[in-house]
């Protein structure tokens, strides 16, 4: 963590502890160093810093490209090594930046659902995370956030002091599918992307707000 990141990390940890009475389960399952993909459900704007604040290592975040155009916000995001992505969260430039972070041994937070839930329920996974998994060699740690929809979902204008939690699951590796993807047909490759996304989403769904 650089100085800027650590200040933000300390701020969010203090805010989550005092205002939301947060709980963190099994952070030891995330490697302390090296590349890792943190794949989380998405219910609120609270989620990205919540997933990162539960860990004692720096994590790369995705941020909408338009935010980098504002001088102060852009400087802060760059100091946190945030990855600029387009409105849909994809694009070749965004993918390259994500893979560059992983290749450099960084961790990154991705949301298989692609966007925040509208009803508090888990949404179907999109295939984009499958593409990232195949293009990288990083392990995937499924993550689930709890209570953030009730605290600050789409329907809420100001964060409510509801209790929130984050849980980290067991690491997932996809060596067999990565090996198959090297020589398979394009239709099969698309199936692999979606298969990986669905397996990750299923692992997220199984997580419960308690220590294992």
Short key terms for the protein model shown above:
about 210 residues; alpha/beta; Glycerol-3-phosphate (1)-acyltransferase; 5-stranded mixed sheet; two-stranded parallel sheet; 8 helices; 7 strands; about 40% helix; globular
What does it look like?
The chain has eight helices and seven strands; from the N terminus they run αββαβαβαβαβαβαα. The chain has about 210 residues and is an alpha/beta fold. The protein has one domain: 3-Layer(aba) Sandwich (Glycerol-3-phosphate (1)-acyltransferase), CATH 3.40.1130. Strand 3, helix 3 and strand 4 form a beta-alpha-beta unit. Helix 1 crosses helix 2 and helix 5 packs across helix 8. The model has no long low-confidence stretch (mean pLDDT about 95).
């Amino acid at each position: 963590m650089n100085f800027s990141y650590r200040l933000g990390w300390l701020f969010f940890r203090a805010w989550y502890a005092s205002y939301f009475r947060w709980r963190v389960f099994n952070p030891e399952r995330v490697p302390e160093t090296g590349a890792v993909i943190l794949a989380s459900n998405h219910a609120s704007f609270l989620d990205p810093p919540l997933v990162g604040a539960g860990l004692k290592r720096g994590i790369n975040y995705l941020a909408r490209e338009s935010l980098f155009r504002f001088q102060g916000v852009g400087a802060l995001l760059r100091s946190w090594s945030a990855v600029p992505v387009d409105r849909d969260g994809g694009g070749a430039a965004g993918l390259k930046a994500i893979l560059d972070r992983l290749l450099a041994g960084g961790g990154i937070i991705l949301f298989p659902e692609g966007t925040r839930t509208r009803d508090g329920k888990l949404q179907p996974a999109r295939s984009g995370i499958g593409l990232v998994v195949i293009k990288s060699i990083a392990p995937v740690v499924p993550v689930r956030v709890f209570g953030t929809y009730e605290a600050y979902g789409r329907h809420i204008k100001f964060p409510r002091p509801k209790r929130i939690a984050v849980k980290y699951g067991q690491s997932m590796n996809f060596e067999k599918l990565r090996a198959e993807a090297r020589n398979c047909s394009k239709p099969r490759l698309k199936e692999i992307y979606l298969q990986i996304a669905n397996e990750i989403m299923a692992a997220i769904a199984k997580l419960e707000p308690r220590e294992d």
